[in-house]
Design brief:
Blueprint lengths: L2 E5 L5 H13 L4 E4 L10 E4 L5 H29 L5 H7 L1 H26 L5
Length: about 120
Amino acid sequence: MSALVFRLRNVPDDEAQDIRDLLDENQLEWFETTAGNWGIAMPALWLTHSCDVARARALIDQYQQARRLRLREELEHNTAAGLQPRLVDRLVERPFACLGIFAFCAFLLYVTLWPFVRLALPGNH
């Protein structure tokens, strides 16, 4: 009987491909399901034989631990070297998108607080 071994929703493409390669390298039989036409099904990697789940999970856990350490080291290196983008860099890169987000947040704040402000004004009781 098949068994779920790895969910693919919100997983970066490079990580998903690495997991596929890892399963292939260790000669584990697997298949993939997609999210379907409407994106409501569960995209995942499944093992054909449920007896291989423990071995596959151990391999995947080991891979993810190494990936996490590698990405953390890259982030620390990029931050120390000044290569990691800062908030100011992102604002300069996309000024209209940032302005739109700020305007939307201000609108939500206004809509949320205006009824309470009106109640606090004199003569509106």
